[in-house]
Design goal:
single chain; 131 residues; mainly alpha; 3-stranded antiparallel sheet; 6 helices
Length: 131
């Protein structure tokens, strides 16, 4: 069985490649036009386009001397179907989750005899020094 989702998600993981796909939503574009808004070399853009092509998200076609890029929206179908499987879950309200955690931590600190100020304790990886 071939894993077609991994290359798609790997391609979508990069913000430059997502921006390129957004540009191609409008119309087919020449490689030089795709590269224009980015502060990187044409070779770097070409590498991004290769990743998108390998994932099946775009196709490239040579017309005369110019290479044109075209969005291939059907390539996102499998990823979309896979993600829709997670649509059955309610969205998480992170603010409510944080309030819950603060309340739980406050109860734990109160039980231990410490004063709770409603703030989350520092991350274990961060060291605090008292001046």
């Amino acid at each position: 069985m071939t894993d077609r989702l991994s290359p798609v998600f790997a391609a979508l993981a990069d913000p430059t490649r997502r921006a390129i796909l957004a540009m191609l939503l409008e119309d087919d574009m020449a490689v030089t036009d795709v590269a224009e808004p980015f502060q990187m070399s044409l070779a770097a853009i070409s590498k991004h386009l290769t990743v998108l092509t390998d994932a099946g998200l775009i196709s490239r076609e040579k017309r005369g001397r110019v290479i044109w890029c075209k969005l291939e929206p059907d390539a996102l179908r499998a990823a979309s179907v896979w993600m829709q499987g997670f649509g059955q879950f309610e969205p998480v309200d992170l603010d409510a989750f944080e309030r819950f955690l603060v309340g739980e931590l406050a109860e734990d600190l109160t039980d231990e005899g410490e004063e709770a100020d409603g703030a989350l304790p520092p991350s274990p990886s961060v060291s605090r020094t008292d001046g």
